[in-house]
Amino acid sequence: MPITADHLTYVYGGNKNLKTTAVDDISVSIDDGQFIGLIGHTGSGKTTFLQLLSGLIKPESGTVLIDGEDIFAKNFDLHSIRSKVGIVFQYPEHQLFEETVFTDVCFGPKNLGLPKEEIESRAIEALRLVGLDEGIYSQSPFELSGGQKRRVAIAGVISMKPKFLILDEPTAGLDPAGRKEILGLVSKLCREQNMTIILVSHSMDDVAEYADRILVINDGKLAIDAPPREVFNHKDELESYGLSLPQVTKAMFRLKESGIPVNTDAITVNEALSDILKVLK
Amino acid sequence: MDIIKAENLIFEYKRRDEDGNIESVERALDNVSLDVKEGDFISILGANGSGKSTFAKHLNAILLPTEGTVWVDGMDSKDEDKLFTIRQTAGMVFQNPDNQIIGQVVEEDVAFGPENMGIPTEQLRERVDEALKTLGMMEFSKKSPNRLSGGQKQRVSIAGVLAMHPKCIVLDEPTAMLDPAGRKEVIRALRALNEVEKITIILITHYMEETIYSDKIFVMNKGKIAMEGTPREVFKRVEELEEYKLEVPKITLLAHELWKKGIDIPECILSDKELAEALKKLV
Lengths: 281, 283
What we know:
The structure holds 2 protein chains of 2 kinds.
Chain A: E1 3-12, E2 20-30, E3 35-39, H1 46-53, E4 61-66, E5 69-70, E6 85-88, H2 101-111, H3 116-129, H4 146-158, E7 164-168, H5 176-193, E8 196-200, H6 204-210, E9 213-218, E10 221-226, H7 228-231, H8 235-240, H9 247-257, H10 269-280
Helix pairs in contact in A: 2-3, 2-4, 3-4, 4-5
Chain B: E1 2-16, E2 22-37, E3 41-46, H1 52-56, E4 67-72, E5 75-76, H2 83-89, E6 90-93, H3 97-100, H4 106-116, H5 121-134, H6 150-162, E7 168-172, H7 180-195, E8 200-204, E9 216-221, E10 224-229, H8 231-235, H9 238-243, H10 250-260, H11 272-280
């Protein structure tokens, strides 16, 4: 079942003059197993939109349907969302707190009141999924590398077995290898566990490579909703929103302007490569 | 004259148990020697944990060497009498603008550094305005920093350092939390400070494409300097960079792949402009 935003609107600030509409009448439906890239400049309303989707804040008007149920309806049990929608906030490693990696990952399922065996088997499964081996289960999470810490934090969310996984800039501050590692993991969760992914990122290159659908938010509105190739052909529009193009797409536009007859719809290095080779032949 | 000079720099993080005995020692910097010429734009690349930030913190004496020496504009960083001069010579800007902005109003925030240096009020005004103008933030001088975008906040942080009239600005991942427009703004501001104001820039980043205009790149790996050279010299070594958990800019990778396929273009291309020029000759 999909997750659906229905005319979702959220307004900050009580004072009339200071009111800001952070999310402005967004309607969108996201199907099971999709990998969504969510982009928009700082302050565009992305984070507020995610907080609404996961039931952390209540909308001014409109609503969210998860598996067909209105999560803001009076008789709806908001607690049940916590095991359906997992959120990995920015710098999630700052939320690690337990003494060992294993107990940290157990924290979520423990709060669901599950039996001990179930808690532990979930933790083991989650740690395996993120690619951490048993050697570090008993270590303090604070002794790990940046990329490892982040994987522990993600395991903590996955152990809740969410259907929807929301990640807010999960690669900020990581080196290129660490970025690839985390995004590879997220894409594996999408393909193999059929988790629905919503990835917020400021890296156009990353969303171009991993997402199969991109939502562009600007001024609280859903400005573009399309597959990556289509989104990144809106060059001027994206730039007016403070966004940019993937590096190779930008280069392809440049080549075309210089009179080299390439297509401008390549979004990855491999696509650009075969396109340029075709022109040169 | 070298604005920064490190000689056989070693730094060890020591972990102590409850009684204060040393439990373990981790060498974060392992015999680092390097020089930075005044007026250069330098980039430092390296995986997480490679020692970049530890090195940066030696440049204004936040950390002091376990062994070896760091000179900032000729001053030994261990010389306590010079501490304030060193900090004023090499200013630092960090990753998260929200953690370094303290003023309620933009100009107040920018004045914080020079005010602490004891700059008289009339000069203070001049310095703050000048710094804000240089960073293109003058129109926001009376605004609250909370209302600014990430890129604007980071430019305010840089203005705050600039108002102390440093010879060198060290920036530790200043764009990691910014959106594309914010990143462009900050990098453009740094290039202008370097070219127009002749301030030495030392940029630490994980975004390879931000470094292509540097005079020199240092690549760190496991606490050592693993590579050093112009962007073209460094980014030519695609496979070696991958070993250090890094990559080359996407354009460079694309050109490298074309070159490997036997296309007659230079081996190392850094920008889309260069790529267009090289390919134009072949079409």
